[in-house]
Amino acid sequence: MIDERIGRNIDRIMQVISALRAATGENQREITIVAVTKGRTVEQIKEVIAQGIAGIGENRVQEALVKYNALPHPRYAPRLNPALSSLNESSDDRKGWVKWHMIGHLQTNKVKEAVRIFDLIQSVDSPRLAQAISKEAGKINKQQDILLEVQTSPEKSKFGLKPQEIPEVFKEISSLPHLEVKGLMTIAPFTDNPETSRPYFKMLRELSEKIDWRQWTTHRGPILSMGMSGDFAVAIEEGANMIRLGRAIFSRP
Fold first, then answer.
1. What is the arithmetic mean of pLDDT over 176-203?
2. pLDDT band of 253, cuts 50, 70, 90
3. Which helix (H) or strand (E) holds 69?
4. Residue 184 resides in a domain
5. Domain count, the chain
6. What CATH code is carried by the domain that includes residue 172?
7. In angstroms, rounded to a whole number, what is the distance separating the alpha carbons of residues 153 and 14?
């Protein structure tokens, strides 16, 4: 059964993103949308994929495993909404590859399962976790892509490395054989006013600009994963090229 509201919501999101890219003069900037599917059904995930969303983001490994195993082709699906290719321009996305993202806090005892299914682990918040990921990736001969999660806000409930720790952590994990750091991720405090998120997004962008990414990744530019349903427009204005959207995709208008 087709959930038409998902398609309508995605169309609205695309319109907002296109307007923002035009306003910033960056019409060619790739913006990857990751659909946050925590608590959503397999049928809803199928609809999101059919609409052209290339990224599926899950907060918990066990929930992700159930959904991943329930999909007949969890890594590939035809695009029924080719207009989204103007937003997701990487070669993998154009071919229809669905990528799975771990976006929640990852415990070391869940790393084995996480490495098996996730293409990008966005929430690496310690050298110890990075080491565990590298070890498990090596067992299956995989090069695991990761983001370093940065705690840009002072909230004690937030996970992540302190901004001042990033240079040292980069140095520490650079020798790990089965990892590639693709960029940075942050979560701004939840608020009704998107503008209050701007300083945290700006902080992540400025931190990324201080890193010589050519030393760390073969990716054509660092990923900045920041911005969710309530503040993704501000995040894009501050340089986000990956946004994580749940409510904006699935909620009724």
1. 94
2. low
3. helix 61-70
4. yes
5. 1
6. 3.20.20.10
7. 28
